Amino acid sequence: MKVLLILLGIFKWAGIVLLALLLLLLLIVLVVLLSPIRYRLSGRKQEAVGGSFDVSWLFGAIKIKGTYGAEEKTKLLVKVLWFTLVDTEKKQTEDAEARKAVAAKEVPPKKKADRQEIPKQEPMLQTAEKQPEGKKEAAAEEKKPKAKPQAQRMAEKQPKTVRRVQLSEITELPPEEIDDSEEIFFSDEVEEKKKKGLPPIVGMLWSIEEKKEIFRAFGKLLKRLIRGVLPGDLFLRAVVGTGDPAATGYVLAAAGVLTAKFGDDIQIKGDFTKAALEDAELRIKGKIVLGALLWVVLAFILTKPVRKAICKMIKFLREKDA
Amino acid sequence: MQLIENLFVAGNVTELETVVYSLRRSIPVLHLYCIVLFEDKNRLEILSSRELFRERNKNRPGQIAGVAMGKREAYELLAFMAEDAVKNGRNPASAAELIL
């Protein structure tokens, strides 16, 4: 009797431990599926191009940060919990310190070399005066061919062969008719060859019923996936010009579509005189929930026509292997 | 839709006889753009030949003043028409005087 009680007690505790493990696993899966991947991206182009990005997941446990710019140094930081996997800023400071240490060690022998170099500097001073003048001339020559504003393009392209034609001098000609009778697009032999050349899986896919519904469901899937990935916040400000006033107008019209969704956060102005991208600033913020994307894919797979098509494909592959 | 007597023709229009034949019979020509003076609005419009011969435009009173193969060439043709008007002392702001 006692042994039985002990055994039951062991089973009870084993059951509790298993249940705890299962719940823990379920919690981990839920956290992974439901915690959003938050991303933030910002960029600007004023005098130079620069930007930064930030991606975090599992409530900041996994972080990736980076900056890029001509004025700032390029940095990348990857962190998982409290472990830093990649830190280019730290590496750069370490490298700089190492260089300083090396330079500090080399200073004493350099003092002797300086004394020897002084007489050499005198001829350098004479040539240095001539160099800026020569450089200025070269710079001026380089600048001349580059300065050609885009607005002149239309004027240069004035049609030289445009003409005025008297209608009374034109004899009308009907368009040439194409004779189709001699051309045979498909003969029986060609069709049979084509059929033989097709792999059997293509034939099987072609025989699937309800293709229209499958395409419709696929369209819905794509729409939902895109909606799940697109940013929630978008701020864009820029002065845009394409060089061609008509094309610039098209770009502004396309920007109008974004304005309908994002409102005053889209401020795009057109420059109809030249090709330009000035005073540009972009800020994007959004989140991706893996669970939502998985749900959308499952919803697509479980749609009746898609389910039937998948079962048919599995059956075909099994028969092929057999 | 009528054509003016002195038609403006862009340089890339090669088979003008076929173009005129088609325009007189309201047959759209691929890639052909027409500069048309519509009398109801008293303005010049650039339309593809396909758009021109749709129901909504077919019965509008107007005259075809210029033809070009492509939208870009049509814009350049209109610019030429304005220049031509200025050279000959006509008022480029008036649509009717542009096509004289």
* Rough outline of chain A: flat
Gap from first CA to last CA of chain B: 17 Å
Report the count of strand segments of chain A. 9
Largest sheet of chain B: 4 strands, mixed
Major sheet details of chain A: 8 strands, mixed
Mean pLDDT of chain B: 89
* Net shape of chain B: globular
| Strand order within the widest beta sheet of chain B | 1-4-2-3
Beta-strand residue fraction of chain A = 15-25%
Structural class of chain B: alpha+beta
- Cα-atom Rg of chain B, whole angstroms? 13 Å
Uncertain runs of chain B: none
Tally the helices of chain A: 9
Order of helices and strands of chain B: EHEEHHEHH
Question: Going across the major beta sheet of chain A, what is the strand order?
Answer: 5-4-3-2-1-9-7-8
Low confidence ranges of chain A: 110-131, 147-156
The portion of residues assigned to helices of chain B is: 25-40%
Rg of chain A, rounded, reads 36 Å
Biggest interchain interface, per-side counts? A-B, 20 and 25 residues
Can you walk me through this structure?
- The complex is a heterodimer of chains A (322) and B (100).
- Helix content of chain A is 56%, strand content 22%.
- Chain A is an alpha+beta fold and 322 residues long.
- Chain A has an 8-stranded mixed sheet.
- In chain A, strand 4 and strand 5 (83-87) form a beta hairpin.
- Chain A is flat.
- The A-B interface holds A 154, 157-168, 170-175, 246 and B 3-11, 15-18, 20-22, 24, 71, 73, 75-77, 79-80, 83.
